[in-house]
Amino acid sequence: MNVVVWNEFRHEKENQVVADIYPEGIHGAIAAFLQKAGHNVTTATLDEEQHGLTDDVLNQADVLVWWGHKAHDEVQEEIAEKVKQRVLEGMGLVVLHSGHFSKVFKKLMGTTCDLKWREADEKERIWVVDPSHPITEGIGEYIEIEKEEMYGEHFDIPTPDELIFVSWFEGGEVFRSGATFKRGRGNIFYFRPGHETYPTYYHEQVQKVIQNGVQWAANKGTPKFVYGNAQPLEEIKEK
Amino acid sequence: MNVVVWNEFRHEKENQVVADIYPEGIHGAIAAFLQKAGHNVTTATLDEEQHGLTDDVLNQADVLVWWGHKAHDEVQEEIAEKVKQRVLEGMGLVVLHSGHFSKVFKKLMGTTCDLKWREADEKERIWVVDPSHPITEGIGEYIEIEKEEMYGEHFDIPTPDELIFVSWFEGGEVFRSGATFKRGRGNIFYFRPGHETYPTYYHEQVQKVIQNGVQWAANKGTPKFVYGNAQPLEEIKEK
Amino acid sequence: MNVVVWNEFRHEKENQVVADIYPEGIHGAIAAFLQKAGHNVTTATLDEEQHGLTDDVLNQADVLVWWGHKAHDEVQEEIAEKVKQRVLEGMGLVVLHSGHFSKVFKKLMGTTCDLKWREADEKERIWVVDPSHPITEGIGEYIEIEKEEMYGEHFDIPTPDELIFVSWFEGGEVFRSGATFKRGRGNIFYFRPGHETYPTYYHEQVQKVIQNGVQWAANKGTPKFVYGNAQPLEEIKEK
Amino acid sequence: MNVVVWNEFRHEKENQVVADIYPEGIHGAIAAFLQKAGHNVTTATLDEEQHGLTDDVLNQADVLVWWGHKAHDEVQEEIAEKVKQRVLEGMGLVVLHSGHFSKVFKKLMGTTCDLKWREADEKERIWVVDPSHPITEGIGEYIEIEKEEMYGEHFDIPTPDELIFVSWFEGGEVFRSGATFKRGRGNIFYFRPGHETYPTYYHEQVQKVIQNGVQWAANKGTPKFVYGNAQPLEEIKEK
């Protein structure tokens, strides 16, 4: 399976705290554990030509993982649109954390994707609410993260196709932190954790969920539809 | 309740068949039965200034009904965007027939909204599949329309929040022809029938469904959220 | 609208703390604010003949509100089954708090309806996650209850048709505390708060949600279906 | 993967037409193509001791396939209940055709599961309405079956978690003929076709869907929950 990990890759260059946590970039950390899981993984970042998302890269990708935060606006409209089209055609998409505000995710959702947030080193408990879903395989009742940024409701997304995780935060908020969405032939998984100043992507259970999400999101050959003017049945033709 | 019926209003000017069926325009026919149902109804059309959708009109609308077909591209991007925002803020939206391809609906859905179609004077049977839903009040097991344009699956929309009607067509197709979607504080109802060359909007049961849809879509005062940087609980503050 | 408030009515007779909070019984407190909202309200309790749920009472009920806790097993199988049938036929059902373990709710859900719980005087924050839903009308971003029993995930219910509220608890848990389910022609609303040793049903926002739920759950005349051997269309008949 | 194919196995003994089509029984035909797909398949039938569903058989089953029609009532209450529990604990369940009226399915759904039907040698077209779902892998836009029994709406089931197929019938009806449901840790797939007097289970695309359904329904290790009295966090303990 071909997996492309896309990262904005700006915090790592501008903030020493982030650089220390992710010396190979957030994409590097994510690519590493997905590679170990047996996938064929490449990375792409904002400042590359076409943000590293050429037609070739996208056409061969089974799943695209997306992390962005402070430079959503710098993603070219045309490329965001192309990524959206590829999702509709069947490329899986895993959107992480602040990627909720990416052009690609907002275009696919049709809503503002806004939320509440707070940076206060809070404990997060990510509870499983759908223990039949393959994305929860190998996970316990909940995942605990000692310190994370808080995301709180209301999260302005369409009703998810499946709600898998709900987060509890020390400060009094809850958040629908793991949810799936179908768009065309594409499967989308949003997963909340991963603020850049915390080592969240080294957390084993977080890694396991992202691996499961990548596995789940890949399309293995579902039908392609022909749209537009349709042929009638014989009975109609003869009328 | 303030209801605005929007119509492209082009077929009626260019095609005598349509003009004969809807001498006051499709918007006129729809406005008439909604008025009878007790609503405060106004209309707006493509060729008016700002397509008749000024800030004032939109801000006072509880529900907007939308019919368009051959001139979706002529709807100004800025106005389509404004309508979308108003839906997210709580204005109800009832999208009819070929409105599936309108800019507003596509923006809110995030998909192509494509489908199969055929003009062959086919019989349509619109079956109720959710007999607990208020939009079906006063309707029988199905609505039969003697002749209509066919719309067939796959209909490229996100999974509806509620699937209320499924159509059967003589020529061999089915279609999810009545479906609801929540986006932000807004309620959206898509209802399939209403090709311009048939007198569908005079069909009593079709009228009843549209009335029910308007009633259902109106937001009567649900919570407004504050997004962004959140205040912590006392315990967190004191840390 | 005819509303029947059913209560087990045992805690109030056996526990002075509960009797002091609800001198007219939990059913009395709930009936009082529903009556104020303009409904025609009666009550029924476990120790009455047929638990107060005669055919007459059920046939005339638009909505049944259910509170039970320690004596679920004493509800006669036959009456639980009759209530279930009435829901499928179109009677609305509002299930409160420990009613999650009632025979009626379990029969309608098909799952164990089990959950985690803790009695520790915890703060609860009931967050709105669906601000387009009429059950949230007149409510703020969340409802705060100073002290309540905790209910935690996993809550073993089928995926709700609509998830409206998610609770946060001081001790680290979350709970899907407001959810709707459609069964046949019946609308079901489950709402979590209301442990018997707290004055929760005097909380104005809790009352508002229950009123909204009753309003929402009532069926106003949706289609009734004929099941079984179906008549063919003419074309098929002539074959 | 261990798959158990359960069949009532009565029509085959009593009706020569059915016996001629399925000389090894419907279970034999289904077991054969699932075996070819690489599963470890066994069968069980109504007239065996405990209907062939001993604790041992159920505890080792990853997925149970169910076909029944005329003798639903002869399935012992206790065994139906045991099968339901196993589904809630994580055994996958694929319910075929008239199995919609089986005790097991009705217990898990909480509704009557009733529908319209007609035996008139009608053409059926099973349209894919969710082309992102793995159960549609390898299938075209629709599956056509030359002659089948008709099942029509309203199908009295809870809203499916996923609606994958909708059938069109020559005589004027539609039917939600492929749908998934989550119950506890269990995945359930209902698939409509398969009346005993037609050779439907030899249809390659029907076989492919059932294989996909079995694959999808198996639980590969999702979390098991502890229910009941919960432990508090440290902060709560110290209160």
Structure description:
The structure is a homotetramer of 239-residue chains. Chain A is an alpha/beta fold. Chain A has one domain: Rossmann fold, CATH 3.40.50. In chain A, 28% of the residues lie in helices and 30% in strands. Chain A contains eight helices and ten strands. Chain A has helices spanning 11-14, 16-21, 25-36, 55-60, 77-89, 103-109, 204-217, 234-238; strands at residues 2-7, 40-45, 63-67, 92-96, 116-128, 142-152, 162-169, 174-183, 186-191, 228-229. A nine-stranded mixed sheet of chain A has the order 2-1-3-4-9-8-7-5-6. In chain A, helix 5 (77-89) crosses helix 6 (103-109). Chain A is globular and about 65 Å long. At the A-B interface, helix 6, strand 5, strand 8 and strand 10 of A face helix 6, strand 5, strand 8 and strand 10 of B. Chains A, B, C, D: This is Trehalose utilization protein. Chains A, B, C, D: InterPro entries: Class_I_gatase-like, ThuA-like, Trehalose_catabolism_ThuA_prok. Chains A, B, C, D: Residues 2-217 form the ThuA-like domain.
